[in-house]
Write a structure and sequence with these properties.
This protein has one domain: ph1033 like domains (ph1033 like fold, Roll), CATH 3.10.590. About 25% of the residues lie in helices and about 35% in strands. The protein has helices at about 15-20, 35-40, 100-105, 110-115, 125-135; strands at about 5-10, 25, 50-55, 60-70, 80-95, 120. Strands 2-5-4-3-1-6 form a 6-stranded mixed beta sheet.
């Protein structure tokens, strides 16, 4: 299983919006960065991801699951852009802030810390477990 992190501005698309989509999930559309797109192309059905509120809060608030593998983004006619569908799995019991990630042992190499602008990024299994523990899901 792969692990990922998806960033969204909560005033545009927040955790409550994702949860409201239910089991069908929602297309993670609008990504216009090649590295982020390639990350989505690498995802498999059932991969898990952290839902991260950027700009406001700067914190991991929930877990999502890939409910449809990468397909053309429905918001554009440009065939270069793909996206996956995500469904909400569960909230973290305690949000994990960027500040906590920056000082947490074991997260020193996390992409979120070194390339915080990348909207879709990989997470290692070790990082996944540490954040789940910090979020009260351990």
């Amino acid at each position: 299983m792969g692990y990922w992190l998806f960033k969204s501005e909560p005033d545009t698309w927040g955790w409550p919006d994702q949860v409201a989509r239910g089991a069908a999930g929602e297309e993670w559309h609008g990504v216009r960065n090649y590295q982020a797109r390639n990350n989505m192309r690498a995802m498999k059905l059932g991969d898990q991801g952290f839902f991260y509120h950027s700009n406001i809060g700067k914190e991991i608030v929930g877990i999502v699951e890939v409910s449809r593998e990468s397909q053309p983004d429905s918001t554009t006619d440009d065939l270069r852009w793909d996206c996956v569908c995500l469904r909400a799995v569960r909230p973290l019991l305690r949000p994990v802030t960027l500040e906590v990630c920056k000082v947490q042992l074991g997260l020193e190499q996390m992409v979120l810390i070194h390339n915080s602008r990348l909207s879709v990024q990989p997470v290692t299994a070790q990082e996944w477990q540490i954040i789940c523990d910090l979020g009260g899901l351990g």
